[in-house]
Design goal:
The chain is of the alpha/beta class. It has one domain. It is about 25% helix and about 10% strand. The chain contains three helices and three strands. The chain has a three-stranded parallel sheet with strand order 2-1-3, covered by helices on one side. The longest helix has 14 residues.
């Protein structure tokens, strides 16, 4: 059984910085905005490639995010904390990608 916790707050309030207190051995981060994490040592503690034994991935499209979550759930039992930072960006990327699409007027 898992618990979901959402941390919401204004920009610059320390949401991403709070990841620093989590144990990198049991934490995986999916970074949807692709921006560097705001604390020292994150590159040393979080390595790219969740399917290759790493604990970090920069992914912005929702299908790949879902696939990464499924992979972690199925194949990475040592991962106890999964952080989606910043999932709001992922949702806005989907809208922006479709902004110039033309559709049928009904």
């Amino acid at each position: 059984m898992s618990n979901m916790i959402g941390i919401v707050g204004p920009s610059g309030s320390g949401k991403s910085t709070s990841i620093e207190t989590l144990d990198p051995k049991t934490t995986a981060i999916i970074n949807t905005a692709g921006k560097p994490l705001p604390f020292k040592g994150w590159k040393k503690n979080y390595t790219e490639g969740i399917s290759a034994g790493g604990n970090y991935a920069a992914i912005s499209d929702s299908k790949s995010i879902c696939a990464a979550i499924e992979f972690i759930s199925t194949h990475r039992p040592e991962i106890k904390n999964l952080v989606l930072d910043d999932i709001g960006y992922s949702m806005s990327f989907q809208y922006m990608e479709k902004a110039r699409d033309k559709g049928l007027l009904v």
